[in-house]
Every structure is written in structure tokens, then in C-alpha cells.
Amino acid sequence: MFEYFPGNYVWNLSVVAALNSGGLIDEVDRACRPIRELAAQGSDVGTTALMASWTAVVDDLEAQAVADEAAGHRRAAGHKYLRATNYLTQAERMQSAHAPGRRAVYQRCLDLMRKTFDLIDPATTRVAVPFEGTTLPAYFTSAGPGAPCMIMWNGLDSTKEHMYVSGFPQELAARGISTLMVDCPGSGEALRFGGLTARVTTEDWAAACVDYLLARGDVDAARIGLVGWSLGGYYAPRAAAFEKRLALCVAWGANHNWGEVQLRRLEREGENPVPHYWDHVMWVWGSSSIEDFIKTASDVHLDGVVERITVPFLVAHGENDRQIPLSYAHRSYDQATASPRRELRIFTPAEGGAEHIGLDHLPHVSVFVADWIADSFGTTA
Averaged over 314-321, what is the pLDDT? Predict the structure, then answer.
């Protein structure tokens, strides 16, 4: 993995995520160079300075985009808003759950994303999925009436904005497949503005997503699938085991026993995905203490669950994933014995995509997953 900040895995993860989601190396360098020495002090120290440095680049891009719009250069403006969303999304996810102004920063991400859609992607719209008396905020990228659709879920710290800028929905659309990108409970806007925290029973919000898609009337009801990355590698298989209207499932990062991972992190084994880790997970899960969180997390596993998956099932995992053990990928695959078409794809350092969810070579992994989905749905690129 490209490591701009030697020895600081967490900060490097944001750098490669930004670069492999359409970021430009000059802009990322300008965001990172002022904080290079600060990174040596660890992942928690300096996140406020990181936000300021990355925001300065976002400010420049937004000012350029406004000028482009005034000149009638809609495409140029749209792409600048897109990159600004990418950078600000990565900086925002690095902040403490209690950081002052974090809600305002995330609102700015939403505003930049909306301007992107308005200017360069009318096929993508903001939608709301009804859920237990409230809604799950989402984006829908349409591949046309009657197209199959993938529901896409994020993980512990990503958002629907990161899902969009990753380029994966565009890969699916090129293959004739629509995408519903959802901020699940415990993530993105659902957590930040809706106060919805994560839960073990992910089939609850899977049912809500399927109900929403069926009510739209422009999705092929027989071809609705689910893909989840990072912690979504638990969320999605759990949902597919119990929500039988789903036609396929992808675990993009095999989070087979996330509760066990938390015990390892207590012992400082493996890498964390974000700074201020324990504050973050307690925020996501609505826990009052680390002890309360660990008790909840003990139920976040797929043993006795993936055996219930009865649809095609892809497990995609990086050989050098420093957060989630490779052995979990084998466990999810080996236990999914009822799946009529299961596949285990391990990405190696030699080809790229070997780090967590393939962030070190995200387009390579995205294309493989999109092709697998298209093959399963019978669409063509």
C-alpha cells in the first residue's frame, strides 16, 4: 500500500482511499504535506490539523467550481465538486465523534455531493428508505427502467458519499445494474443526523431496502442483490441469510467474527480503521461504556448464520488485510454450504487490492465485484 505517512496506517488508509476514489495526487499531496511531521505522533494526535489541511484544499476546489459554474462550465464544476466531496468525506471520518462542528462538516459533504449530481450525474438522486417510523438516507443510481439493482451498505466509518465516489455504482451502471447506496443505522447521515445506531439484526433494514425498491416500480423484483464492504461484510451476509427476497450477496471484506476482532483490538492486535477508535465504536453502537460495547459486539458474528444463505455468495478479501484476518474469508466461504454458487476471491499484493477492502487498488477490486454481479444477474458490460 502507498504509505504517505510512514508508520501511520490509519492516516495512510484515508490517503489511498481518496486517491483510489478519483482523487488527484497533487491535490492530496497539498492536503497532506503540511501535516506530514504531525502524522509521526500517531493516528489520534493531529486529526484537527488534518481536517484543517484537507479543508483548505476543499475550499480551493469549491471556489474554482463556483467560478466554473458562473462561466457556464458545468462539467468542470461538477468534477471539482466531486473531488471536494471525496476529500472532505475522508477528512470527516477521521474526526473524533465529539469533535466540534462535525455535523456542519458532514452537511457540507452532503451539499457538495448534491451539486455533483445536479451538474454531471442526473442518473443519481437522493432518496429516503422508510424504516421504523423514520428513514434511511440513500442515493439511487439508475441504470434504466426494469434494471436489476444492488443495495450497497457501508461499514463502521464510511458513508454513502464514499460509496458513490468510489466509482462502484458507475461500474454497475455500465453493466446495466442500478445501485441503492444506503447509510445504514450506525453510519453516515443515519447516525449523524438521525441518531440511528447499529444493531446485530441487519435483516431489519434489509427488508426496508427491498420494500423501498419494490415500491419504486422501476427495479427488476427478481434481481435485487446486496453488497456490503468492511463491517458490511458482516451486515450483508447476515441480512441475506434471513431476507429471502435478495437474489445474491457479496461480502466485500469477510467480517465473519467482528466481536472477536474487538477483543484483539483491546489487546492492541491488528490495525484500527479510524482514530479515536473506542469513542467511535461506542458512538456507532450506542454503547455507554467499552464493557457494554464488547458485550454487544460478542453477537456480531456469522457462525450459524452464513449456512442459511441460499443465493449466490461472493467473499472478496485482501490477503494483507491488517484489520480483518484472512482466515475469516475462508470461514465465511466454508460455512456457506447452502449457497448454489459461492466463490472466494483473495486479492494478493502482487496484483493489488490486498489491503482492507482493496483500498490500495480499489478500482481493481470494484471491477471484479461488478463483473461477478453482472455474471450472476445475466447482464453485460
Answer: 98
CATH (residue range 1-122): 1.20.1440
The boundaries of every CATH 3.40.50.1820 domain in the chain are 123-381
The conformation of residue 14, written as its DSSP 8-state character, comes to H
Q: What's the CA gap between 45 and 34, in Å, rounded?
A: 14
* Helix, strand, coil fractions of the chain, as percent rounded to 5: 50, 15, 35
Instruction: Identify whether the C-beta of residue 125 lies closer than 8 Å to the C-beta of residue 140.
Output: yes
* Single-letter amino acid code for the residue at 101: G
Please state whether the predicted TM-score (pTM) of the whole model is above 0.90.
yes
Task: Report the distance separating Cα 339 and Cα 305, nearest Å.
Answer: 12
Q: Which residues of 300-320 are buried (b: 16+ CB within 10 A; e: fewer)?
A: bbbeebbebbebbbbbbbbee
For residues 150 and 172, is the Cβ–Cβ distance under 8 A? yes
Yes or no: domain 123-381 corresponds to CATH 3.40.50.1820: yes
